[in-house]
User: Fold this.
Amino acid sequence: MLNEQGLSEEQVLSRLNSLLENDATYRSGHPVASMSTIPHSIGSEVFYKTMEKNAGRLHTFKGSAQVECEVIAMIGELLNLENPVGSTTSGGTESNILAMLCARESNKKIQEPEIIAPRTVHSSVDKAAWLLGIKLVKTPIDKEFKAKPKAIQKKINENTIGIFTTAGTTYLGQIDPIDKIGKIAQDNRLHLHVDAAFGGFVIPFLRDLGISHHQFAFEVEGVTSVSSDPHKMGLAPIPAGSLIFRSKKFLKKITKKIPYLQGASATQSTILGTRPAGAILATWAVMKRLGKEGYRQMVLQCIENTQIALNRLEDNPLLKPAIKPVMNIIGIKSNELPLEYIVENMEKRGWRMATSPKPHTMRLVLMPHVTVGALNAFFNDLDQVSTTIPAD
Ligand code: 0PR
Assistant:
């Protein structure tokens, strides 16, 4: 209820604090299944100081417009594109919707458009298809939960307008064989979108660190667009996403004139109108502050913690990883006890769990806030819970 008279600042804050008591806090090392984390301190500071700025009005905020261009240039560089064009977004969902809109607008003559995607794509791809009136054709995956290029090839018909793939899947952090799918997209002149919402700020640094080499972005010729979220492994505050296109002609397909606004505000290439410039400015600040080396070290620490988690998992004969982790995400399978029983009891002990139906796993995301202490506490509980026989 909205009170008639305003409360004192003290009263407001104390009521809010008690309402938020049930929220998990990243500072405690929890949660261990989230793709969000504590933003880098410079990001929080910039965000806090620039909250009045509106990136839907870039004519008014010309400096912010310039910063957005620089953010696109920096992310484009990580994705191996020399002259990137694109837009910052509110996150992976908006980016996937816009990428699908681009594919649809590039194929206006097709009456009943179809997009092909392996069944591991994030649910925002289903949402995008639903919103845009596109049929989403799901294809099977291999034993390692990667897209099968041949299965995609088989589904191509005269209504196909694009292919959606993932670099860093939501449940397992798996990377689809983008190079092979790129060839198929090129041969059939189809829009190929790579959802690197999570992997975009991980895979380039795995390559630098010599841990693994994946061709996942614009180094694959057939790739048309890539999304990558600063508000996941980029350490920027929410809401910070991005969508990068290979060339301007694709960006134009999702650009709309706003007739009553001037200059840089006269067109928009996002779903949102008014949107926080603060998140873009904070992304810029975090990327500049960390540099490539800062991200490399952060990714290295996450990978080392992934190994610590895997070692603990190996000690428990009742649990095992669904695949050998490709990045800092582990999908844990239960060999004997029902997963629901384990999850329910872990929740009772205060852990916030995330499960996936296929493969039937619980997810561990080794984000930068997940400390070794929190990991050990998690596995101590998991060992107890998974070895306790449920009473009939
Ligand atoms: N693409 C992929 C591969 C994703 O994993 C996600 C989000 C998206 C797109 C959508 O991104 P936005 O949520 O930024 O629009 N995956 C996260 C997940 O399922 C969403 C999330 C984040 C859920 C933090 C819980 C949480 O605590 O884990």
